[in-house]
Amino acid sequence: MVTRRSILLYPFSLIYGLVTGIRNFLYNANILSSSEFNLPVICVGNITVGGTGKTPHTEYLISLLRNYRVATLSRGYKRKSSGFLVASQASGVEDVGDEPLQMYKKFPDITVAVDRNRVNGVKNILRERPETGVIILDDGFQHRSIKPGFSILLSDFERFMMKDHLLPYGDLRESLDNVRRADIIIISKSPENISPIERRLIVKDIEKAPYQNLYFTSLKYKDPVSVFPGSMPESFSDASQKKEMSILLVTGVANPQPLQDYLQKNYGDVTHINFRDHHHFTEEDLQEIFTTWDSIKSPLKFIFTTEKDAVRIQEFTNIAEPYRSSFFYIPVGIFFLNGDQEEFDNLIVDYVRKNKRNNRVSEI
């Protein structure tokens, strides 16, 4: 559901729109310059505040392009470090941020870098990892200082950007005119059974340009994985047994509702402790979690969390039994609706194969 705040905030949205509009005009008119680089650069982002599924879509691209020496560049939201940094085995959440650390743990063979200054970040990647074949800018749509060769714009199905308003009255970070900068538009978190009528209405509202491709994706939740290596894994394959389980869901993400809905559909009772997005867990938070878990009377109970939250919880090495072995995270991926995966894959791979210079696809 699209956020609507007090109408008293609407005048401030007009001011915000004026400021961001001037900034984008200066870039569009080449008064402010954008840097280009001699390799394919793919941007994954959105124009709305909150989760639209950037991380699972970025991870999908990493899997698709692993043979092309992939590097990802994020700003490392809420990290305590500064400047340019490449994730390593010694990195923690405070060094690179939770989402980059998640990607590094899942893909340790690629370069995962963070830098608030995206131009500086790309230059450092190319200097330190000159073999890099393609760079994915995670959450880089608003960073006009780099001109990507390929831009992928995400919009949450339930918080459709075309029905939204500018901050602070709504959740848009810039005006809808900027949708035209995208080469691909993805309606993420779409229901698997989306009707043809719903699809047509969305296509009509977007009014995409001839050079733009539009796709619909859904989230795909996978079997739970132990948060702490060495914990005894449980079997979650028996559907009848799942219904007898009691789940304590712990989340610190922008929109936990899809995961909560999935668990309520496939498991027994679900109790939810919800923290803010990118929440920094404390010992007091853990005590609240354990106290709530203790109060659940079911003999078959588990603590489930998201993959992003798991990388933060893993930094607590002193969690004792039985809590330690009861912690699991739910991996999430994406899949394309309407049989569009092959078309999408070919579009991305063809761009990476053909482009030695960072030219925009719509200009080729």
What are the salient characteristics of this protein?
364 residues, alpha/beta, 9-stranded mixed β-sheet, 5-stranded mixed β-sheet, 14 strands, 19% strand, disordered C terminus
Structure in a nutshell:
Strands 3-4-2-5-1-6-7-8-14 form a nine-stranded mixed beta sheet, with helices on both faces. Strands 9-13-12-10-11 form a five-stranded mixed beta sheet, sandwiched between helices.
Topology (elements, then pairings):
Blueprint: H1 10-28, E1 41-45, H2 54-65, E2 70-74, E3 85-86, H3 93-96, H4 98-106, E4 111-114, H5 118-128, E5 134-138, E6 150-156, E7 184-188, H6 196-206, E8 213-221, E9 225-226, H7 239-242, E10 246-251, H8 257-266, E11 270-274, H9 283-295, E12 301-306, H10 307-313, H11 323-326, E13 327-330, E14 332-336, H12 341-354
Parallel strand pairs: 1-5, 1-6, 2-4, 2-5, 6-7, 7-8, 10-11, 10-12, 12-13
Antiparallel strand pairs: 3-4, 8-14, 9-13
Helix pairs in contact: 4-10
Written overview of the protein:
The chain is α/β, with parallel strands linked by helices. Helices cover 32% and strands 19% of the residues. It contains twelve helices and 14 strands. The strands form two sheets. Strands 3-4-2-5-1-6-7-8-14 form a nine-stranded mixed sheet, sandwiched between helices. Helix 4 crosses helix 10. The radius of gyration is 21 Å and the shape is globular. The C terminus is likely disordered.
